Amino acid sequence: MRFMFVGDSMTIGRAGDYTWRYRMWQHLNASFGGPYKIVGPRTEVYDTFADAPVSHDYADPDFPAHARRHLAGWGEGWQHMAPLIGGTVTAHKPDVLLVSLGLIDLGFYTDADQTAANARAFVTAARQARPSVRMVLLPVIPNSRAETDAPFAAEVARFNELLAKAVADLSTDASPLLLAARPEAYDIHYDTYDGTHPNASGEHRLAGEFAAVMHQAWGLGGPYRPRD
How many domains does the chain have? Predict the structure, then answer.
């Protein structure tokens, strides 16, 4: 089975991060119980000094290159990934997309309705490229701006409702969609390094939500157990 991570800055990570992708790789190694592969066109993390995704400085230098693959970008959201996903799925043939997008869209580019429309376009394009592809979509998680900007918090809440509706509307037997849980215990003061981007504990929480829903709904992997 082939997995591909799709996301924004919280998924690509910055130089020196482990990333929640790394935590998921650890989880799959420990619990998947069969052959799998992580696929995607990119392997880098974001370099804050270069202001570009050009670093390979992961916190664990032994994180193997083949497991670092992804389709994630600092400052990229649903509106950026929807045009890319068809060609990427065609080229890399993922069976499961693990998607964490939306915060950057709502923060800089589109409102909730436009963001939800881009999410639906993403699903359509992925399926056109691979009709059997499965997807797990994460709602927008807690962040510092939502704590201080009430209109923005309202847009986040509305988008999460629209995303849940899209998952319910679009899921099919041939190409099922799952909505991962918005991590209830996620504390931006404990689980992030800046109110938005996950630190080590936040990475575990994000990986754990993806792992939990795949295990419960599809029997893929096992219960998530954080590993250092």
Answer: 1
